[in-house]
Amino acid sequence: MSHVEDMGNTLAGMLGRLPPEQLHPARAWIEEYALPTLAEIGPGSSSAELAEAVALLERARELIDDVLALSETTRGHVVGYLATLGISGEQPPPSLPHPSPLDRIPTDASRDRSWIDQVRQRLPDYTGGQTTGLVYDQDGNELQVNSGRDPKLSEQARLILHNSERYPTDDRGAPAVTTHVEVKYALMMRQAGQTYGVVVLNNELCRGCEKAVPEILPEGSTLKVWHPGAPDTITLRGKARP
């Protein structure tokens, strides 16, 4: 193998590992928390500072989109050129070590349908009874969480919901909800100070969890939920006071 081919294969493998998704957490924070929060407090306000903050956040979102688009276009040009040399962009670099972070899942994967489909293939079919979920923290670490009562998590979730002013009275502290994957993981996020998470379920998200999770997650926290049959991710934002 020539030096040119060796360099080409190395470059091709590295292109497959480029992580433009590192910009997505910042974009997600702008789009899913910062702008909605300002929109809630903005009506009726004549504050020039507030208007300027909104404009700057929207501009930042546009710039991130431009960078991501440029990154993908540049990658396409380079991969195309390498293909004319008979070098595939799918080839791994011949001598690069395998970095441990590559075993993790990028947080923007909550938007990637192809990734979600791959995760779903690893989940058991739901046949009634126990629900299984694969959950991911903001660093991309994976954990499997099953439905069912947990002596600590379920009881703590019950107490939080019982003391919540917004959680429906007839559902307050309902044992069924506190045993669900989404509620248990929301409490795990809260305890760990984790502000972003993704859950992929083999069962549908119930209405009780849609109401309970925001009451458990602190303000500024977001949980993305994928469940079978959903065309897109469901976003649950924290409402609990830190």
Architecture overview:
47% of the residues lie in helices and 11% in strands. The protein has helices at residues 3-15, 24-41, 48-84, 113-122, 153-162, 175-178, 181-192, 207-216, and strands at 132-137, 142-146, 196-201, 222-226, 234-237. The protein has a 5-stranded mixed sheet with strand order 2-1-3-4-5, with helices on both faces. A hairpin with a 4-residue loop joins strand 1 and strand 2. The radius of gyration is 22 Å and the shape is flat.
Summarize the structure.
The protein has 242 residues and is an alpha+beta fold.
Write the layout of secondary structure elements.
Blueprint: H1 3-15, H2 24-41, H3 48-84, H4 113-122, E1 132-137, E2 142-146, H5 153-162, H6 175-178, H7 181-192, E3 196-201, H8 207-216, E4 222-226, E5 234-237
Parallel strand pairs: 3-4
Antiparallel strand pairs: 1-2, 1-3, 4-5
The secondary structure category is: alpha+beta
Q: What's the number of helices? A: 8
Which percent range describes the beta-strand content?
Answer: 5-15%
Unreliable spans: 14-18, 89-104
Gyration radius from CA atoms, angstroms:
22 Å
- Oligomeric state of shown chains: single chain
- CATH topology-level fold name of the largest domain: Cytidine Deaminase, domain 2
Order of helices and strands: HHHHEEHHHEHEE
Shape: flat
Largest beta-sheet characterization: 5 strands, mixed
Q: How many structural domains in the coordinates?
A: 2
The first-level CATH class of the largest domain is given as Alpha Beta
What CATH architecture of the largest domain do you see?
Answer: 3-Layer(aba) Sandwich
Q: State the end-to-end distance.
A: 59 Å
Mean of the pLDDT scores?
Answer: 75
